[in-house]
Amino acid sequence: MGVRFYKNSAQYFSKKISAISKLLRGTVSATTSLAFVSVVLANPASAATGKPEKENLKFGFIKLTDMAPLAVALENGYFEDEGLNVELEAQANWKVVLDRVITGQLDGSHMLMGQPVGAAAGFGTSGELVYAYALTQNTYACTVGNDIWNMIKKSVPKGADGKPLHPISAEVLKPVIQNYKNQGKPFNMGMVFPVSTHNMGLRYWLAAGGINPGFYAPQKGDTSGQIGSDAMLSVVPPPQMPATLEAGTINGYCVGEPWNQQAVFRGIGVPILTVHNQIADKIFGVTKTWAEKNPNTHIHVVKALIRAGKWLDEKDNANRPAAAKIISNPNYVGADYKVIANSMTGVFEYERGDVRKEPDFNVFFRYNASYPFYSDAVWYLSQMRRWGQIPEAKPDNWYADLAKKIAMPEVYQQAAKDLIAEGKMTAADFQDFSKTDGYRSPEATEWIDGIKFDGHKPNDYLKQFKIGLKGEEKL
């Protein structure tokens, strides 16, 4: 049976009421059943989701600050409020996360946005994954080792206060990379997974500065991503980034927190880019089969996560110190509280002592960050096409159709309506669902090079880049 995507809320509620009506038949009179159904249809926003099909759940996560909504939902009792008994279990790396969700060892997990996208597009591990909740946006940064920073620092533009102007263009790395080439040495950078936010963001930033990050050619059996590259990108698990940098194996990396701040605290590196592009970084992912089998459970999980996301962002990040304390626990991220707080409480430290206000680094709920937009999936697909992970040209409708197989906004919308009906949230907390087509505005997703992303026209978007595949181009 395929996943059910409902064109509108009326169709969604019709399906729900049909199921409820069948359940009621045989236990109450037909008249009572019809009266109940009539009341719900007359006021669908008050239709409470039924009991979860599965109450005992195991969710995975990687030791990153953007797993915070899961920890907060557990520690603040939001999962319990939904009748769920949740166990959170740390995973070794993103490949393990993917495998354990697909095989059913985990009910769901903190997951890279690119993982359900890559699985649907046929790159890497195959599987049918879906998501109804985006955990975060703007949660990662790029860091270089002290030796590289000392080489580029003089050429970095400065402000009136004498401090570097951020974001720093990757163009400052070009002379360093050329010098490495002249010596016959590779310039190595770490990222966490081939379809990760960090790989796509690092590639985007490098290319915007005129540095070719390399191409994939899966049709030729080459999934290194290093064809024609100026900088050599390779996979390093997030918690291992600082140690790998300190060992000299890589010259820099792109990763989520707290591993950039860890480099600052250990005195081994300097972050030179924090990402602000309003595109989902991580999501809560499940298999399509699990979503079909447990529709009520899915809604209850999303309800708990919505409350956690709102708590994390409300009152101008007032709860962030408490959240940093929660996830500093060894059962969660396990990093020192000061390291976590350094990027989670509205500030970010670049060079040691250069602490700046970054209120929108780590966004969990505001700007509709938690909504499962189709356009976010389209953006990842566009970058996969740009770098050859999708080796051949695809029409715009292919991107749209695939995005609709991955994102489940109907689940999010029902969770929101339930929370509003219960008085736990208000309509003002959410966008007007009747007015969204699931695509962010192009202005919302403009990033470091000023190029706007219109998710309805991914091929036109790709044509704007000097570096990367576009149109009918292939390797």
Structural class: alpha/beta
Total beta strand runs? 14
Q: What's the overall geometry? A: globular
Please list the strands of the largest sheet in the order they lie side by side.
Answer: 2-1-3-12-4
Strand content: 15-25%
Radius of gyration: 23 Å
| Unreliably modeled segments | 1-47
Tell me the CATH topology of the largest domain. D-Maltodextrin-Binding Protein, domain 2
Q: How many domains make up the coordinates?
A: 3
The helix count comes to: 19
Mean pLDDT: 90
**What is the CATH superfamily label of the largest domain?**
Periplasmic binding protein-like II
The rounded distance between the terminal residues' Cα atoms is 37 Å
What's the CATH architecture of the largest domain? 3-Layer(aba) Sandwich
- Which bin fits the share of residues in helices? 25-40%
Specify the CATH class of the largest domain. Alpha Beta
Major β-sheet, in short?
Answer: 5 strands, mixed
What would you note in describing this structure?
The protein is an alpha/beta fold and 475 residues long. It folds into three domains: 9-46, no CATH class; 56-137 and 280-346 and 361-462, 3-Layer(aba) Sandwich (D-Maltodextrin-Binding Protein, domain 2), CATH 3.40.190; 140-276, D-Maltodextrin-Binding Protein, domain 2. 39% of the residues lie in helices and 16% in strands. The strands form four sheets. Strands 2-1-3-12-4 form a five-stranded mixed sheet, with helices on both faces. A hairpin with a 5-residue loop joins strand 13 and strand 14 (355-357). Helix 14 (320-327) packs antiparallel against helix 15. It is globular, with a radius of gyration of 23 Å. Mean pLDDT is 90; it is low at 1-47.
